[in-house]
Write a sequence for this structure.
């Protein structure tokens, strides 16, 4: 990919290039040109571009997933907001519910749920709870940079192991390997499955799409190490963005399969809510020569609009371009995943360990 990024006013290390208006807020915040000029003359920084960690104290942590487009029944998120800064991330819109912007705020104001492990333990110990896989990172990455400091995800994995409860993980960060000891124990009982997101094989593409994520090599290495230790991995080739990574489908499937993934899944990019505005500004700054073509191709997958909320269609897309993407995926599965399957997780053990130790009688 040719990177013809416009360096003028480009915020390095971030995906979003602005804070778009929060649709739930009456007031609009804007940075005026006269203020920027004042800062320039005074030699001051108008925006320090620093990440803030803000503790919050929710009463529950496990969420029932009702969307028919998502292959999970329950999810939990130790963090809200995500410093990875992926420009296409559907979770950006959820930051508005917390009173922040889906733009830079999503990447720089990270909400920390320090009580997550205790809330999880209370949930799965409840007498009415029946074990079903709880997926960590249904919204934001549980192994984003904040995890290195707070270790909330590790504490939650210890709870899952203690009560022999099945857990799924979605991440694009090799920090997950820090917890290989716990993951191996969970894997011995068939209690864990990991979904690793691999969006491109190009480091140049990765850097502009997902500015604070780990390298592609580290992600493929993570798949390999997990697989060598008996932990099943599903590769998430998502999202596929026409004109940016759509030409890599076959190569991506080959790479993740050879690294040890036992299945793969994908979605067609959709730019709902504030993400359409953020992505449009981003691509005009980052890939101006391709911007119009890419935006038109994305719209062609969603009935002529960047915004698509139709269940059953929004993540698959429709039309000629989407059909071509699905045809490529079918060919990739036949070529590299023909005899591979992702195993079902063990939901039987938990009942015996509900009180914290295996029942003897």
């Amino acid at each position: 990919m040719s990177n013809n990024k416009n360096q003028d006013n480009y915020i390095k290390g971030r995906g979003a290039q602005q804070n778009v208006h929060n649709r739930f807020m009456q007031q609009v915040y804007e940075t005026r040109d006269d203020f920027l000029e004042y800062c320039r003359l005074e030699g001051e920084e108008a925006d320090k571009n620093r990440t803030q960690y803000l503790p919050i104290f929710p009463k529950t942590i496990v969420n029932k997933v009702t969307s028919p487009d998502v292959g999970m029944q329950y999810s939990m998120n130790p963090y809200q907001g995500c410093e990875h800064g992926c420009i296409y991330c559907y979770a950006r819109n959820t930051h508005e519910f917390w009173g922040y912007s889906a733009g830079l705020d999503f990447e720089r104001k990270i909400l920390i749920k320090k009580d997550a492990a205790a809330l999880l333990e209370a949930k799965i110990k409840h007498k009415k709870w029946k074990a079903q896989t709880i997926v960590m990172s249904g919204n934001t990455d549980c192994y984003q940079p904040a995890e290195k400091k707070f270790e909330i995800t590790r504490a939650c994995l210890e709870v899952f192991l203690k009560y022999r409860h099945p857990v799924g993980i979605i991440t694009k960060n090799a920090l997950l390997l820090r917890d290989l000891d716990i993951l191996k124990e969970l894997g011995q009982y068939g209690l864990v499955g990991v979904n690793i997101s691999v969006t491109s094989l190009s480091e140049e593409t990765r850097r502009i799409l997902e500015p604070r994520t780990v390298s592609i090599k580290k992600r493929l290495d993570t798949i390999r190490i997990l697989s060598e230790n008996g932990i099943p991995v599903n590769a998430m080739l998502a999202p596929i963005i026409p004109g940016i990574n759509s030409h890599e489908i076959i190569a991506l499937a080959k790479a993740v399969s050879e690294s040890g993934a036992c299945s793969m899944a994908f979605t067609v990019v959709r730019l709902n809510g504030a993400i359409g505005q953020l992505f449009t500004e981003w691509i005009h700054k980052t890939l101006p020569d391709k911007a119009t073509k890419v935006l038109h191709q994305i719209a062609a997958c969603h009935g002529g609009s960047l915004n698509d909320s139709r269940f059953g269609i929004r993540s698959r897309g429709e039309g000629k371009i989407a059909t071509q993407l699905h045809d490529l995926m079918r060919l990739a599965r036949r070529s590299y995943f023909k005899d591979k399957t992702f195993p079902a997780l063990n939901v039987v053990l938990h009942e015996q360990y509900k009180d914290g130790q295996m029942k003897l009688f």
Remarks:
- The chain has a mean pLDDT of 92.
- The chain is about 35% helix and 10% strand.
